[in-house]
Amino acid sequence: MNENPNQRPGTLPVIEQALTELARTTIDEATDAGPGEDGIHTMGAAVRSADGRMFAGVNLYHFTGGPCAELVALGAARAAGATDLTHIVAVGNHGRGVKSPCGRDRQILADYYPGIEVIMPTAAGPVCIAARELLPLGFDTSGEHS
Protein backbone atom coordinates (compact mmCIF):
# COMPACT_ATOMS: atom_id res chain seq x y z
CA MET A 1 0.00 0.00 0.00
CA ASN A 2 1.27 3.42 -0.88
CA GLU A 3 0.59 5.74 2.01
CA ASN A 4 0.64 9.47 1.35
CA PRO A 5 4.38 10.33 1.39
CA ASN A 6 3.64 13.81 2.77
CA GLN A 7 1.86 12.46 5.83
CA ARG A 8 3.38 10.96 8.94
CA PRO A 9 1.32 8.14 10.45
CA GLY A 10 -0.88 9.36 13.26
CA THR A 11 -0.77 13.02 12.23
CA LEU A 12 -3.80 13.58 10.04
CA PRO A 13 -4.15 17.01 8.45
CA VAL A 14 -6.86 19.27 9.88
CA ILE A 15 -9.38 18.41 7.14
CA GLU A 16 -9.09 14.67 7.80
CA GLN A 17 -9.25 15.29 11.55
CA ALA A 18 -12.52 17.21 11.08
CA LEU A 19 -13.95 14.40 8.96
CA THR A 20 -12.98 11.82 11.58
CA GLU A 21 -14.55 13.96 14.31
CA LEU A 22 -17.81 14.21 12.32
CA ALA A 23 -17.96 10.41 12.01
CA ARG A 24 -17.20 10.03 15.73
CA THR A 25 -19.83 12.50 16.91
CA THR A 26 -22.40 11.07 14.50
CA ILE A 27 -22.09 7.53 15.87
CA ASP A 28 -21.78 8.72 19.46
CA GLU A 29 -25.13 10.49 19.08
CA ALA A 30 -26.81 7.66 17.15
CA THR A 31 -25.51 4.47 18.78
CA ASP A 32 -28.09 2.23 20.40
CA ALA A 33 -25.71 -0.06 22.28
CA GLY A 34 -23.75 0.27 25.48
CA PRO A 35 -20.02 -0.49 25.55
CA GLY A 36 -19.45 -4.13 24.57
CA GLU A 37 -23.11 -4.67 23.66
CA ASP A 38 -24.53 -5.64 20.29
CA GLY A 39 -26.56 -2.98 18.57
CA ILE A 40 -28.05 -1.94 15.26
CA HIS A 41 -26.04 1.30 14.99
CA THR A 42 -22.42 0.80 16.06
CA MET A 43 -20.35 2.43 13.29
CA GLY A 44 -20.28 5.96 11.93
CA ALA A 45 -18.73 7.23 8.71
CA ALA A 46 -18.14 10.54 7.03
CA VAL A 47 -17.23 11.48 3.48
CA ARG A 48 -15.85 14.78 2.15
CA SER A 49 -16.54 16.27 -1.26
CA ALA A 50 -14.07 18.31 -3.30
CA ASP A 51 -16.03 21.48 -2.50
CA GLY A 52 -15.47 20.89 1.24
CA ARG A 53 -18.90 19.62 2.24
CA MET A 54 -18.99 16.68 4.64
CA PHE A 55 -21.70 14.04 4.93
CA ALA A 56 -22.19 11.47 7.67
CA GLY A 57 -23.96 8.15 8.04
CA VAL A 58 -24.34 5.26 10.46
CA ASN A 59 -24.57 1.55 9.82
CA LEU A 60 -27.78 -0.44 10.05
CA TYR A 61 -26.67 -3.87 11.23
CA HIS A 62 -28.75 -6.83 10.12
CA PHE A 63 -27.83 -10.49 9.80
CA THR A 64 -28.63 -10.30 6.07
CA GLY A 65 -25.89 -7.73 5.56
CA GLY A 66 -27.41 -4.34 6.23
CA PRO A 67 -25.61 -1.28 4.90
CA CYS A 68 -22.30 -0.27 6.41
CA ALA A 69 -21.86 3.31 7.61
CA GLU A 70 -19.57 4.11 4.67
CA LEU A 71 -22.28 3.23 2.15
CA VAL A 72 -24.86 5.30 4.02
CA ALA A 73 -22.48 8.30 4.03
CA LEU A 74 -21.81 7.85 0.30
CA GLY A 75 -25.57 7.78 -0.33
CA ALA A 76 -26.10 10.92 1.75
CA ALA A 77 -23.41 12.71 -0.26
CA ARG A 78 -24.99 11.71 -3.56
CA ALA A 79 -28.47 12.67 -2.36
CA ALA A 80 -27.08 16.16 -1.66
CA GLY A 81 -25.60 16.37 -5.16
CA ALA A 82 -21.97 15.69 -4.26
CA THR A 83 -20.23 13.65 -6.95
CA ASP A 84 -16.51 14.43 -6.55
CA LEU A 85 -15.58 12.77 -3.25
CA THR A 86 -12.08 13.09 -1.80
CA HIS A 87 -11.97 11.36 1.62
CA ILE A 88 -13.88 8.80 3.68
CA VAL A 89 -13.52 7.44 7.21
CA ALA A 90 -15.32 4.94 9.44
CA VAL A 91 -15.30 5.12 13.24
CA GLY A 92 -16.56 2.70 15.88
CA ASN A 93 -18.89 3.73 18.69
CA HIS A 94 -17.74 4.20 22.30
CA GLY A 95 -14.31 5.51 21.35
CA ARG A 96 -13.26 2.47 19.32
CA GLY A 97 -11.54 4.81 16.86
CA VAL A 98 -10.93 4.67 13.13
CA LYS A 99 -11.84 1.33 11.58
CA SER A 100 -10.84 -0.33 8.32
CA PRO A 101 -13.59 -0.75 5.71
CA CYS A 102 -14.89 -4.29 5.22
CA GLY A 103 -14.24 -6.21 2.00
CA ARG A 104 -17.57 -5.28 0.43
CA ASP A 105 -16.96 -1.59 1.12
CA ARG A 106 -13.42 -1.83 -0.26
CA GLN A 107 -14.78 -3.34 -3.48
CA ILE A 108 -17.43 -0.62 -3.81
CA LEU A 109 -14.91 2.14 -3.11
CA ALA A 110 -12.42 0.66 -5.60
CA ASP A 111 -15.14 0.32 -8.27
CA TYR A 112 -16.87 3.70 -7.91
CA TYR A 113 -14.33 5.96 -6.15
CA PRO A 114 -10.85 4.49 -6.84
CA GLY A 115 -9.07 7.74 -6.02
CA ILE A 116 -10.91 8.54 -2.79
CA GLU A 117 -8.54 8.71 0.18
CA VAL A 118 -9.60 6.24 2.87
CA ILE A 119 -8.52 7.10 6.40
CA MET A 120 -7.14 3.82 7.73
CA PRO A 121 -5.92 2.71 11.16
CA THR A 122 -2.30 1.64 11.57
CA ALA A 123 -0.22 0.80 14.63
CA ALA A 124 1.36 4.26 14.36
CA GLY A 125 -1.99 6.04 13.95
CA PRO A 126 -4.37 6.82 11.09
CA VAL A 127 -3.15 7.34 7.52
CA CYS A 128 -4.81 8.11 4.17
CA ILE A 129 -4.63 5.47 1.45
CA ALA A 130 -6.29 5.59 -1.99
CA ALA A 131 -9.18 3.12 -2.28
CA ARG A 132 -7.57 1.46 -5.31
CA GLU A 133 -4.62 0.51 -3.06
CA LEU A 134 -6.88 -1.29 -0.56
CA LEU A 135 -8.04 -3.87 -3.07
CA PRO A 136 -5.26 -4.37 -5.62
CA LEU A 137 -6.69 -7.65 -6.93
CA GLY A 138 -10.40 -6.90 -6.55
CA PHE A 139 -13.13 -8.52 -8.60
CA ASP A 140 -13.38 -7.00 -12.09
CA THR A 141 -16.84 -6.98 -13.69
CA SER A 142 -15.74 -5.39 -16.99
CA GLY A 143 -16.00 -8.65 -18.97
CA GLU A 144 -18.89 -10.22 -17.07
CA HIS A 145 -21.76 -8.84 -19.17
CA SER A 146 -20.38 -9.26 -22.69
TrEMBL record:
Q: Which PROSITE patterns match?
A: CYT_DCMP_DEAMINASES_2
InterPro entries hit by this protein: CMP_dCMP_dom, Cyt/Deoxycyt_deaminase, Cytidine_deaminase-like
Q: Which intervals hold domain CMP/dCMP-type deaminase?
A: 14-142
Q: Name one GO cellular component term.
A: cytosol
SUPFAM superfamilies assigned to the protein according to its UniProt record, in alphabetical order: Cytidine deaminase-like (SSF53927)
One GO MF annotation is:
zinc ion binding
Biological process (GO) annotations held by this record are: nucleobase-containing small molecule metabolic process; pyrimidine-containing compound metabolic process
Tell me the domain of life.
Bacteria
Family as reported in the entry's similarity comment: Belongs to the cytidine and deoxycytidylate deaminase family.
The protein's name: Cytidine deaminase
